[in-house]
Amino acid sequence: MNVSLHRFASSAPAAPTLPDEAPLADALQALMDARQTVLPKRLVDPGPSAAELRDWLACATSAPDHDRLRPWRLVLVPAAQRPRLGQAFADALRERDPAATADQLEQAHDKALRAPVLLLVVVNGACGDPEIDLNERILSAGCAVQNLLLMATARGWGSALTSGKALKSGALRTLFALGPQEHALCCLSVGTASARKPTPPRPGVHEIVRTLTDAGPIDGLTEGPNPDTTP
Fold it and tell me: 74, 58 in Cβ contact below 8 A?
């Protein structure tokens, strides 16, 4: 038995080599604290180069993915295709509001023309094992997007997620050739921030955590130090 365990251990993949734990954790905490949304209208050139864009997009691939379904994809909308996306946005507004004015339609169209990099995040609810439900697939996509947002921050770029009713429209689904079980989750925009607002206060731990007790869930942490008491 000892021999077989030894053989198993020696054949197991090595753990990744990382920098010293404390500096890495501090850097990661600072990165997460620094991340903020910069509206697409404030994202300008220069954006990532082609090589930078490829390296940045590769960061999405380390997201958790149950059974390796690859249930999401990122669709890059290059500059030459932005007018087509803008038309889909305008058509989507016209679908849900036939009385939309020319100015409103133009504003909807122009939303596609902002930011040097624009991606559509799509989740497939039907690929692979049907027992892996849509919520898991969306969660995987969310983790991939967070990887991209954090790396954009680390590289000094501004970034934003945008969504809205247009993503469910027939016009947009036709443009991106989405299948019946595919869902357009959001748009991800990246570029140089022309202006930034102060980072809004983050919620306290007691606002986002509940602890299960014999009496049922209660707000906050019931054991250990309370992070919210730190000045």
Answer: no
Residue with tokens 């954009």: 152
Cα angle for residues 207, 212, 217 (degrees, 5° grid): 60
C-alpha–C-alpha distance, residues 73 and 215, integer Å? 43
73 CB-contact burial (10 Å; exposed 0-12 / middle 13-18 / buried 19+): middle
Q: How many residues does the chain have?
A: 231
Query: Which of 7-11, 101-105, 139-143 has the weakest average pLDDT?
Result: 7-11
Give the helix/strand (H/E) hosting 8.
Answer: helix 2-11
Long-range contacts of 97-102 (CB under 8 A, 24+ apart): none
CA-based nearest residue to 40, from 163, 174, 171, 166: 163
In whole angstroms, what is the distance from residue 50 CA to residue 56 CA?
10
Residue 96 phi/psi, 5° resolution?
A: -95, -10
SS3 209: coil
Mean pLDDT of 105-110: 98
Contacts of 92 (CB under 8 A, 6+ apart): 108, 165, 166, 169, 170, 171, 172
* Separation of alpha carbons 117 and 197, rounded Å: 21
pLDDT at 200: 87
The H-or-E segment that residue 52 falls in is helix 50-58
pLDDT at 222: 80
